[in-house]
């Protein structure tokens, strides 16, 4: 998720708030959405003049090197290679650290540990809908309640759906404050989507839960009857790759379906150029739609591989599936064919998807987040 996010960025956009010194607290830097978020946040904050230290209290991971390549970023991590719940040397450095303006964590355990850090303000992001419902977090939540009866007011949510699930799990009111996952988008106004193209693209991990690949492979047999120029390009890798290759080989449209390795070194623009539509979710959906490509959303672990619509039709800040109990769903093929109705219909969907993608642009998201943090500072400290 990180290697191809090299984009041209405008100059320093530092806000004039009272947040200057920031600690980010997380377990590790294994490959995952939250870990990719930490890399993006850290890079943006340092580039915009903030003093940042990332504390990893359990271990490293493959995305650690991306943090280590950010000039000016401090990273505190156990280096003995052992796996443990909490490394005491990291805890010792947390307790002994200078006072931070903000300490931001990404899980219940990270929030609990953040109370060891001298800080003016603590906030904690919630990036999974059932994070505070998981059995493994129940003891941690009891400890949080014992330490701070108002800890729920420190939660910041990825989107309204995650907020709703969290309020239900905790059985209490939670604040109406959000930080969607920020994505580095190209500053140019390039339009890579084309109604005249027949190139469909998906990018992402190839795992058992990415069920939409199979449906699009089946859909291709129908699409090439409509127009033999249609092709489907999958960029990714993962444990389910062998089964995916078998499905492609057995398809009557196999000559029109291509499996590529994950793009590297800023190569995402090249694979999205002259693209008819993008099918998937997450950060790649945001980037594709930001370039004027219609986005068709995919759902994880869906046996029928249904979609919740075009990207712009999702609830606020959703990036793939909405987690509503009974969302309206569509067949992916239906959404692809709707884009063929007219050039005007295509461009209308593309523009709406692009506008939604701008909600996730990193300068916009991070500036709003820092304003949120400044507004949460204790009143007496704001006056000082």
How would you describe what is shown here?
With 384 residues, the chain is of the alpha/beta class. 36% of the residues lie in helices and 13% in strands. Strand 8, helix 8 (241-250) and strand 9 form a beta-alpha-beta unit. The chain starts with 20 loop residues before the first strand and ends with a helix. The relative contact order is 0.13.
Task: Please write out the topology.
Layout (H helix, E strand, L loop, with lengths): L20 E6 L6 H15 L3 E6 L7 H5 L5 E4 L10 H9 L5 E4 L2 H7 L7 E5 L11 H10 L7 E3 L2 H11 L28 E5 L8 H15 L4 E5 L5 H10 L6 E4 L7 H5 L4 E4 L1 H9 L4 E3 L34 H7 L4 H16 L3 H15 L2 H5 L1
Parallel strand pairs: 1-2, 1-4, 2-3, 4-5, 5-6, 7-8, 7-10, 8-9, 10-11
Helix pairs in contact: 4-5, 10-12
Across the major sheet, the strand order is: 3-2-1-4-5-6
Q: How large is the share of residues in beta strands?
A: 5-15%
Q: What structural category characterises the helix and strand content? A: alpha/beta
Q: What is the average per-residue confidence, as pLDDT, rounded to a whole number?
A: 87
**Elements, N to C (H/E):** EHEHEHEHEHEHEHEHEHEHEHHHH
Q: Give the total of beta strands.
A: 11
Total number of helices: 14
Low-confidence stretches: 1-11, 80-86
The major pleated sheet works out as: 6 strands, parallel
- What percent of residues adopt helix (DSSP H or I)? 25-40%
Distance between the termini: 41 Å
Shape: elongated
